[in-house]
Amino acid sequence: MNERRIKVLLGKPGLDGHDQGAKVVARAMMDAGFEVIYTGLRQTPEQIARIALEEDVDVISLSSMAGSHIPFCRKLKPLLEANGLTDKLWVIGGNLPAQDHDALRELGFKGIFPSGSKLDAITEFIRKEVK
Amino acid sequence: MNAPQKPAMKKVINESGIEVKPLYTAADVEASGGMEMVGDPGAYPFTRGIHREMYRKQPWTMRQYAGFGNPADTNQRFNYLIANGQTGLNVAFDLPTQIGLDSDDPLAEGEIGRVGMSIDTLRDFEIAFDGIDLKKITVSLTINGAAAILIAMYLAMAEKRGYDVKELRGTAQNDILKEFIGRGTWIFPVEPSIRLVGDTIEYCAKEAPKYTPVSVCGYHIRESGATPAQEIAYAFCIAKAYADDAIRRGLPVDEFAGRLSYNFNIFGNIFEQVCKFRAGRGLWAKIMKEQYGAEKPGSMWLRMIAAGGGGGLTFEQPEVNIVRGAYYALISALSGTQTMALCSYDEAYTIPTEYSARLSLRTMQLLIEEMGLTETVDPLAGSFYVETMTNEMRKKMEEIMDEVDAQGGIVKMVAEGTIQAKVSAQAYGMQRKIESGEFPKVGVNCYKNEQEEDHPVEFHPYNEDDARVQIESLQRIRAERDNAAVAAALTRLRKDAAAGTNVMPALVEAVKAYASVGEMTKELVSVFGRYQEPIRF
Prior knowledge:
A: alpha/beta; 5 helices; 41% helix; B: 5-stranded parallel beta sheet; 21 helices; 12 strands
């Protein structure tokens, strides 16, 4: 089997410092056999877009816990588009109230995993969506 | 209703790694070290409590974490909580303030006033605490990276309102080492960050001797994946790092140790938690007496806030969190805490509403008024189980502290990211155990509802307009203040930082001239640089 390993960017957008969840998900992704590029804290939209492009990832995933996911993703979307990253899988997880899910979907996030989501649900979704 | 399988005599190991027996007798107490460390409340080694009468004299302080929007919004919430019987304030700052950015910094966009209140200058503190009697209501500032600046601002605000700073009580969290492990509001590299904590300890020991400049947090290390025993052990290692810095400056231990305090977490097994605190009190007293030569009893006291932790609460069936919170409050009371706070039932989702914050307050007030928790000191003492487990928890904590020393000390481990990697691996292990059902969590992996309710909590609204108001206010202050005085104070700050002089006098001068949090932070960054996070998980 010579299937390419799925490569995932896992970013911590904005100023939020709560990274326990992001690190747990990163470990789950590695256990699932993915290659994970974890950005560390305080990434700007520009940094996320640049790393995604440079690392040629299949998946751009964000972990947001402090409520600024909508304004951040509004800034990120045009940058990902400008860098030709619309064919990548965009995923977001964290403290994401249900009433924001439609807006996130409209912004291009296909996978939305609010806190409480199962680790295997996240990795299975990615495996299914990345072809 | 799928109850978790629990064979009657399966071996039980608590989260800290200690086996829990089905029965304890006097022989277990003896075998674990006897009653030597128990003593009396108010006397060394303080296992039973730091005061003889404890809550008979005064119940614990109630201090819900609160703050959002601009200072005027927060002042309103403060007054609401005080009107409902809260006896202290625990101030939440927004992320730009916590990491030293002004509201008009491009990086602050979308984050102003979101998870706490926004503070740029002394004017904001004047508004936030307007009308609040700072002698009656003690204020705790949950601030770390920018703590030296915000402490200076608080002292300046109190002085301006006519309080004698020498008599002023209050607390700053100001525990930067734990921010590198969890929570993440660091600014400067590790070494200058510790120096800044030392500057605040030294300054307060001389100028504000009743103010508590540091509250060392096991809380967030626990939230990041540490066991209860590690929570206390790592916090003690961190407190020792700050104490060592103070001693290197020539401060006698009895001049500052009495003003150190702690912030700990409560969730999980009731007895493990209560014994954790009893064990911790004895161990801290022993460390201060034997390792630091402290002589004043106050220097040996483990003063703490023991707070019901978010890590125990669930998104699923959030109303069950009300009950969890009540048990956490009970644990906190049985543990002999000085201050209590509870994450509210909706806090896994949002900033608590007035309704849920009041419910948390009522939960604590029930224990005081109806349940008899304030009548007798350390009521669980003498239980074979509790005394044995207290001894075993203390031994476990000592082992963990020895391991840290053997690996080069907490400062080195934090700088290299080894503690972060360890607790993160544990958090992953725990999450897997919860998802597999091995570690039962009601509503999550057992007793699940057929269908979760659609709108389980009311969301705290984020007011987009607050940011505009805050930025306009900052710009007005910049235009109106004496900018020559600001420039002179900032120059002094940079020089003092570079010379290794205590920066607190320069910060107080700058704050009084209405320099902004971002301006002062920039000066310090120009000398100290910024922290580069080791990416380890």
